[in-house]
């Protein structure tokens, strides 16, 4: 198939999923065209069967806000026509599904078809989509999509309830490449000493440091752990709450035990180094960062929110807590880190969950099948 993919190409879960999906589809022989504002950060530009079409937005003094959505729709229609795309797959409803809808109309006017699929990722529904200024048009574009998928059952139900949409929503959960994200003992032995001494435990957190991620809770939990045992923390990512996390780390006296690593491209090299992942989010429609850690054999201490319980079975492959209960999370982390056999059983269960239920080789065929169904019925 010839597939156009649009996503936010910067650091964020939906962009990661869209890019990894394109890479996996290209490896299976499909022709993939990314239509985005910049090259998605996980692409090298050298992958075969992958093409990148930049959306550039001209600005004029008259424009208070440059119309990106229109430039995107134009580029989508052009690429679809020039490269005979079979379908467009947009990730994150706002504004991508609206642009895809316009692109489809432009092609229809020229006697061609261009079905489009919208994949809902979370904040496009739970936060941004519920803002009155976006809600009606987002609902309209979801209803007009030729296919809609969501990354968890939770998000499907939430979309139906909050948007009152009648469209069928296919749940296709997020995935991870279990060969790329894996615990490689030799690599761990070589890299871990850069982050923790042999007697120290290593904790990790990966996010875009937005308030919804509650990064300061990570620091609170870590401070308690590091008072109970020698430990270090890797904070991977960057965003609005980074300075609040740095300030709190300083105030709690653990600043020098935390590696603020900023945005990193190869998180698959870093995650396997950790003993435990901490994901204390206010909301996660799925929790891709936890899945990536689990595939690396690193169980997560997380919050029981959104779609997280579809990924983490409490006490089996990770631990779940109420939002903000940093005391309970810290106590559980300390107990688990002291109990080597339990920690390694949980680490193995985490890796097995990723392999058995969320591996790219299992999930990508679901997308291929869905694409074909959408093409056949349009
Ligand atoms: O919350 C984020 O980090 C950004 C957001 C996005 O769309 O980039 O993430 C959402 O999509 C991810 C990939 O499908 C999910 O793993 C996250 O759980 C989801 N975030 C929220 O629901 C808050």
Automatic annotation (TrEMBL):
Pfam families: Glyco_transf_4, Glycos_transf_1. One of its GO terms (biological process) is bacillithiol biosynthetic process. Residues 196-352 form the Glycosyl transferase family domain. Residues 11-179 form the Glycosyltransferase subfamily 4-like N-terminal domain. One of its GO terms (molecular function) is glycosyltransferase activity. Signal peptide: none annotated. SUPFAM superfamilies: UDP-Glycosyltransferase/glycogen phosphorylase (SSF53756). PANTHER family: SULFOQUINOVOSYL TRANSFERASE SQD2 (PTHR45947:SF3). NCBIfam families: thiol_BshA. This is N-acetyl-alpha-D-glucosaminyl L-malate synthase BshA. It comes from Granulicella arctica.
């Amino acid at each position: 198939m010839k597939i156009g993919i649009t996503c936010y190409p910067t650091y964020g879960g939906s962009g990661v999923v869209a890019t990894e999906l394109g890479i996996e589809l290209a490896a299976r022989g499909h022709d993939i065209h990314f239509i985005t504002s910049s090259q998605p950060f996980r692409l090298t530009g050298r992958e075969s069967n992958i093409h990148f079409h930049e959306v550039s937005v001209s600005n004029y003094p008259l424009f208070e806000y440059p119309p990106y959505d229109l430039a995107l729709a134009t580029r989508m229609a052009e690429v679809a026509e020039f490269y005979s795309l079979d379908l467009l797959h947009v990730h994150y409803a706002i504004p991508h599904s609206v642009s895809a809808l316009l692109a489809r109309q432009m092609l229809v006017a020229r006697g061609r078809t261009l079905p489009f699929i919208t994949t809902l990722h979370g904040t496009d529904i739970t936060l941004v989509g519920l803002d009155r200024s976006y809600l009606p048009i987002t609902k309209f574009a979801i209803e007009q999509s030729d296919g809609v998928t969501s990354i968890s059952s939770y998000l499907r139900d939430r979309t139906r309830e909050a948007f009152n949409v009648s469209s069928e929503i296919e749940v296709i959960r997020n995935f991870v490449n279990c060969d790329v994200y894996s615990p490689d003992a030799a690599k761990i032995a070589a890299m871990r000493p850069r982050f923790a001494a042999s007697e120290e435990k290593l904790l990790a957190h990966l996010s875009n440091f937005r308030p919804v991620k509650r990064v300061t809770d990570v620091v609170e939990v870590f401070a308690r752990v590091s008072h109970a045992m020698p430990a270090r923390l890797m904070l991977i990512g960057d965003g609005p709450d980074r300075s609040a996390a740095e300030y709190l780390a300083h105030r709690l006296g653990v600043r020098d035990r935390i590696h603020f690593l900023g945005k990193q491209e190869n998180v698959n090299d870093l995650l396997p180094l950790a003993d435990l992942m901490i994901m204390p989010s206010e909301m996660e429609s799925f929790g891709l960062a936890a899945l990536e850690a689990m595939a690396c054999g690193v169980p997560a201490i997380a919050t029981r929110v959104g779609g997280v319980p579809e990924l983490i079975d409490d006490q089996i492959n990770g631990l779940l807590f109420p939002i903000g209960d940093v005391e309970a999370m810290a106590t559980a982390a300390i107990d688990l880190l002291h109990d080597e056999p339990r920690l390694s059983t949980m680490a193995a269960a985490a890796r097995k969950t990723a392999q058995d239920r969320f591996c790219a080789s299992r999930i990508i065929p679901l997308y291929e099948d869905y694409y074909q169904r959408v093409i056949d019925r349009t």
